[in-house]
Specification:
The chain is mainly alpha-helical. The protein has one domain. It is 73% helix and 4% strand. It contains three helices and two strands. It has a two-stranded antiparallel ribbon. Strand 1 and strand 2 form a beta hairpin. Helix 1 crosses helix 2, helix 1 runs parallel beside helix 3 and helix 2 runs antiparallel to helix 3. The chain is elongated, with a radius of gyration of 19 Å.
Length: 101
């Protein structure tokens, strides 16, 4: 894989993560999460696509179609999982130590 191909993949996967952050909102911490998820999903999808012989949306040596699907899957699942923990911290269960039954 050539350097321009790698840079294009980094640019595209970063755009997916940043775009998802613009859509869903959040802090700098969530932006970092979305960027990492976008990178991991894009390169994971690219690698999976080439290893399975799927060249959906290939641009040169970059499997853009599978990378896009991988990034979308990682971003959606990662956002869902991260919000589960956030809801639990935001609404802790009531303290029942002093309650008699």
């Amino acid at each position: 894989m050539t350097l321009p191909t790698i840079l294009f993949g980094i640019l595209l996967s970063s755009a997916y993560g940043a775009g998802y952050h613009v859509w869903r909102g959040g802090s700098i911490r969530r932006l970092t999460l979305f960027l990492v998820l976008g990178w991991a999903g894009f390169w994971g999808g690219d690698t999976l696509g080439w290893s399975m012989g799927w060249d959906f949306g290939a641009v040169g040596n970059l499997n853009v179609g599978m990378g896009t699907l991988g990034a979308a899957a990682f971003l959606l699942i990662g956002d869902f999982v991260s919000r589960i923990g956030w809801r639990e911290q935001k609404n802790p269960p009531p303290d029942r130590r002093g309650t008699s039954r």
